[in-house]
Amino acid sequence: MKFRSTTILTVRRNGLVAMGGDGQVSLGPTVMKGDARKIRRLVDGKVLAGFAGAAADAFALLERFEEKLRDHPANMPRAATELAKEWRTDRALRRLEALIAVADARDTLLISGTGDVIQPDDGILGIGSGGNYALSAARALAENTPMSAEAIVREGLRIASDICVYTNHHITVEELTCET
């Protein structure tokens, strides 16, 4: 059976970065859990990380990413690049199926097992089953409303949960202050 789950959305706006995720975990056509927490604070709360994909794989990757952050303090892009290189070249890691969205005071990044480390131009990033729905909603809200980063994340995830069957309304949001 294939695991499908999660929508993670990150928005950077007005000196804050917010990252949120829904709580649904599905196994095939069955909802197995509705209140999973897919957003984590790493490195003493200075980095937000959200994951989409197989949970065990994501946890293994988050542990390795936190190690990379400790090896490269205050340089999240370098830590992300080192993780992506290791993920792509290591035999065991290559089989892991997950995506990770990370954000700190300066950067928002997508890290994938194909070696991608991508920084969105507009500071808005969506991943997971409902990621494109949430991303579209967040971009429209950011362009056309004065809503805060947290409010955009919540509304973007709510909209995605109304469209994507692998996303639910159990939303968790974490926030950090940005550097200018």
What does this entry look like structurally?
This protein has 180 residues and is α+β, with helices and mostly antiparallel strands. The chain is 33% helix and 32% strand. The chain contains four helices and twelve strands, in the order E-E-E-E-E-E-E-H-H-E-E-E-E-H-H-E. The strands form three sheets. Strands 6-7-8-9-10 form a five-stranded antiparallel beta sheet, covered by helices on one side. A four-stranded antiparallel beta sheet has the order 11-2-3-12, with helices on one face. Strands 1-4-5 form a three-stranded antiparallel beta sheet, with no helix packed on it. A hairpin with a 4-residue loop joins strand 9 (108-112) and strand 10 (117-118).
SSE order and pairing:
Elements: E1 3-5, E2 7-13, E3 16-21, E4 25-27, E5 30-33, E6 39-42, E7 47-53, H1 55-71, H2 76-89, E8 98-103, E9 108-112, E10 117-118, E11 124-128, H3 131-144, H4 149-163, E12 172-177
Helix pairs in contact: 1-2, 3-4
